[in-house]
User: What shape does this take?
Amino acid sequence: VQVFPPVNFTLTVSALAQVLLHWKPNPNQEQNNYTIRYDVKILSPVPEEYDTKKTSSTRTAALHNGFSARVRTLLLHNDLQMRSDWVKERLLPPPGAPETSVTNLSCETHISISSTVSLHCTWLPGQGAPEDTEYFLFYRYEAYTEECQDYTKGKWNRNTECRFSVTHIDPEEVDKLIVIHINGSSKYAVIKPFQQLFNQNAIEKVNVPRNVSVFLEQNDLLATWEKPISPLSNRCFEYEFYLFNLKSGNKQILKLSSNDFRLRIDVTSRYAIQIRANHHICCTRGFWSDWTEIIYVGQNNLENPMSWILTVLCVSMCCMFLLVAIIC
Assistant: This one.
């Protein structure tokens, strides 16, 4: 049996950083008692191979350097598998002068107490971009695309920062992709666009732990706190517990997976304590939260500067009175 390659293979940009691959079965292909599937291989920008029984497929990828793929027919019968030749297509990179696209793109999200998600991105102008270049940022999440309206300008009065105070990013989703697209304009050059994909959890700036409580119980330090504002459950978080002994100068950072803690300490010392959080297990790690405000616990009477000064003054006065009494 001869296996014929698919026909009418096309690549279409269907959204920002999204490509629709579509083909049709070869009309000459014999199908009696055979199962037809298709082997798809993405060649660039990120290699990937998979098979499907459908005649279309959608892939998300950064397209500023183009996209290429190939597809072939798989004919299956019992344990027998036969393959056709490959059919290849490509999307050319969008036009633009070299080194005019942005560099050093960095983005961060934050979940508010009202469960909305903000987005903040920064970048540097391309080294080859003319001084009059203006950049414009768009983000896409699932089917929603939005252009930035809140820019901050850098050197040469060019946009180098963007903020979305509210987005359509769903805080309850896990490891979904956020597409960032930045294009530009200039009177003196065609500015090459740039795209980058971000995992929504990987760029989340985690909120700080809440309601931290620290107290002493005999020779033990006890600490409890609540997880950060997040739709994720308690088990999804890890913590770093910073403990500073003000008497000895000793510092410790302890890694914890629960939101309570007990530690034997030196009760004659005073301690400074801070906690920060990140998520793991349930999703990709994000950016560590800020440290909580410093909490002090314990006594350090031996090193209380005011007490020490008063003690020295009292001893000095007593010695002076004794000396005067002896002389007189």
Remarks:
- Residues 305-327 form the longest helix (23 residues).
- The chain has three domains: 7-91, 103-199, 210-305.
- The first strand starts at residue 7 and ends at 15.
